[in-house]
Amino acid sequence: MCGIVGAVSTRNIVPILIEGLKRLEYRGYDSCGVAVHQGGELRRARSTSRVAELEVNVAAEGIGASTGIAHTRWATHGAPAVHNAHPHFSAGPGAAAAASGKIALVHNGIIENHDELRAELRQRGYVFASQTDTEVIAHLVHSLYDGDLLEAVQRALPRLRGAYAVAVFCRDEPLRVVGARHGSPLVLGVGTAAAGENFLASDAMALAGVTDQIVYLEEGDVVDLQLGRYWITSAEAPGPEARYLPRERVVRTVHAHSGAAELGPYRHYMQKEIFEQPRALADTLEGVEGISPELFGDGAHRIFKEIDRVLILACGTSSYSGMTAKYWLESIAAIPTAVEIASEYRYRDSVPDPRTLVVTISQSGETADTLAALKHARSLGMKHTLTICNVATSAMVRECELAYITRAGVEIGVASTKAFSTQLAALYLLTLALAQVRGRLSDAQEAAELKALRHLPVALQAVLALEPQVIAWSEDFARKENALFLGRGLHYPIALEGALKLKEISYIHAEAYPAGELKHGPLALVTDQMPVVTVAPNDALLEKLKSNLQEVRARGGQLYVFADGDTQIENEPGVHVIRMPEHYGALSPILHVVPLQLLAYHTACARGTDVDKPRNLAKSVTVE
User: Fold this and answer.
1) DSSP-derived pairing of the beta strands 198-201 and 187-190
2) CB 481 within 8 Å of CB 508
3) Is the Cβ–Cβ distance between 328 and 590 less than 8 Å?
4) Strand order in the sheet with 187-190
5) Closest of 142, 169, 167 to residue 156, by C-alpha
6) How far apart are the C-alpha atoms of 503 and 491, rounded to whole Å?
7) Is the peptide bond before 87 cis (omega within 30 degrees of 0)?
8) Comparing C-alpha atoms, which of 510, 532, 515, 501 is closest to residue 316?
9) What is the three-class DSSP state of 86?
10) Helix/strand/coil for 389
11) What are the Cα distances from residue 243, in Å, to 143, 151, 168?
């Protein structure tokens, strides 16, 4: 979601801040800004356009300094407007937070008690220039400041309820930035001893090319950055009188890179990432010579022996990979599986079982709702945890006993593509490993499954060759405002994912249903203006699906069918068919999702939307 970059140095750090924001643009944002300590005053520039425009404004205004913070904002409290953009200033009671402020602050997350803090601060004379919860923190720090910024921040944090990562500096203390995290990610970048500079960022990728020495701050950490040195503290115990103690954190060498951010011959990152899926799958499966629980970490065999059910927690696209995995886990491994939307799970009464394997799925590993759901599951006594994640250094990986790291590479487009297909591959491996432990995977079956998995990249290349046919369909879809997606069994979650992709980036209203549910309501929507996309593999449900298709045709609906070659579904008036290169059995969902991604992509291109940065959406959702 939002992005933070901060720095203390002896050189002008504004180019570093701007470049860091550019590297974080993939997260999604609707405003951006930078603030520095320059000439004994605080100066800032903010924009509701792209970082490139902010860069132009900064240069035009001559903003440059050796201490500063920068931010990309995805709006929660307050509309996307310049006065709500970060950084926020506090100039003290009775003063508007103008360019001559005393405290400058940026924030990721949501402060749940901002209303009561705002009322308290207003009574003390503080003037609010925005509708954000963030400005409350800036004024609170100002109200507690007595010559030591670190102390003011440490006193302010216990007053906050919610999630945050903050970076703040003060007009009266040049060459000092303080950061803190609780529920939102923040990393410390350690510069070279010769330069004496140090950095803050919400993602190590923002510091690529600046430093590869990274400290992943832990929950509750507060870091004090100065020239050539830094201190990390955290509270001994929570509470208003919290005492902060020094902490040692490991400095890791992290080769964050932006090579994957080069577009090459592609129009958009999403298109590039769709076509990277064969390589991403090959990388994710690299080194898998056999099926073994230890693919998921040391001790996995013991843990898999101790569990007799699976609970999957995820949001958005990741939840659809979990829904697909439920079919695999129950049919192949014969293990009862529940899939919960992470943002809902901890707000209802559930029946915990300590013999459950809790599986979280997240591309970033920082999804706030999923992290909170994981912690809730553990609090209920379910200690066995595993994550499927694309970022090895993420909070999700650190929080779970076991992990499988997908190797999709950096995914820039907000609409997930290669992260989804690699999640499915990892979940299939998990299914096979659990089946093996439960005595349901013979040596012959293991060999056949491994052969099928290794053939996936080649099979995907053949699917990608269907792009010209999909482009022809997209010209019809671009003129529509509604669409239905149908699937059965394993492919119902794939229909859900196809509908999600279409509405995410083309803004066409799209819904997905199990095809058998048409007659229970959605059929009322079908007209010749309602395209109905159908996933039609040659599986046990094919004949049932064909009957559902006839229900659509009888009402004048237009069918667009992705069919396996031997399904005997033919092109005819009102029925448009693209034939998949081959039937792929249980792994068919990984192949069938790709043309749905292409359909969404090319429809969005035809409608002229911002494919990689769709309105109102963010890549890494780090707020609840």
Assistant:
1) antiparallel
2) yes
3) no
4) 41-47, 31-38, 67-73, 3-8, 198-201, 187-190, 213-216, 252-253
5) 142
6) 19
7) yes
8) 501
9) coil
10) strand
11) 19, 11, 20
Judge whether 583 and 566 are in contact, CB under 8 Å.
yes
Written as one letter, the residue type at 443 is D
Residue 605 annotated among the catalytic residues of the structure? no
Q: Which helix (H) or strand (E) holds 616?
A: none
Neighbouring CB atoms inside 10 A of 605's CB total 19
Dihedral of CA atoms 430, 436, 441, 443 in degrees, nearest 10, equals: 110
User: Identity (one letter) of the amino acid at 359?
Assistant: V
pLDDT attached to residue 608 = 95
Residue in 113, 243, 214, 229 with CA at minimum distance from that of residue 176: 229
Report CA torsion sign: 131, 137, 139, 143.
positive
Question: Which of 102, 326, 613, 619 is the catalytic position?
Answer: 619
- Other beta carbons within 10 angstroms of residue 33's beta carbon come to 27
* Ranges of the chain with pLDDT below 50: 99, 259-260, 623-624
Shortest CA distance to 392 belongs to which of 183, 216, 210? 216
Which is the catalytic residue, given 2, 170, 315, 389?
2
* Three-state secondary-structure class, residue 328: helix
Cα separation, 41 vs 101, whole angstroms: 8
| DSSP state for residue 371 in the 8-state scheme | H
The phi and psi torsions of 558 (rounded to 5 degrees) equal -100, 120
Task: Return the SS3 of 576.
Answer: strand
What number of other Cβ atoms are within 10 A of residue 476's Cβ?
A: 14
Q: What is the mean pLDDT of the chain?
A: 90
Token pair in block for residue 597: 């991604």
Question: Is residue 183 classed as helix, strand or coil in its secondary structure?
Answer: strand
Crossing angle, helix 443-464 and helix 418-437, to 10 degrees?
170
CB within 8 Å of 289: residues ≥ 6 apart: none
- How high is the pLDDT of residue 261? 59
Task: Give Cβ neighbours of residue 609 (< 8 Å, ≥ 6 apart).
Answer: 505, 506, 507, 615
**Token pair in block for residue 99:** 């360019």
| pLDDT at 256 (0 to 100) | 63
Q: Is 389 a catalytic residue?
A: no
236 by Cβ neighbours in 10 Å (0-12 / 13-18 / 19+) ranks as exposed
Q: Which helix (H) or strand (E) holds 168?
A: strand 162-170
- Tell me the C-alpha distance between 137 and 121, whole Å: 10
CB count, 10 Å around CB of 623? 19
- Size (the chain), residues: 624
Collapsing DSSP to helix, strand or coil, 46 comes out as strand
Largest CA distance in the chain: 78
**What does each C-alpha distance from 555 to 477, 514, 570 come to in angstroms?**
19, 18, 18
Encoding tokens for residue 102? 């005393």
Residue 207 token pair: 């510091």
Decide: helix, strand or coil at residue 592: helix
The predicted structure's pLDDT at residue 557: 76
Instruction: List Cβ neighbours of 117 (8 Å cut-off, separation of 6 or more).
Output: 111, 136, 140, 159, 160
> Distance between CA atoms of 374 and 401, rounded to whole angstroms?
12
Task: Give the H/E segment covering residue 289.
Answer: none
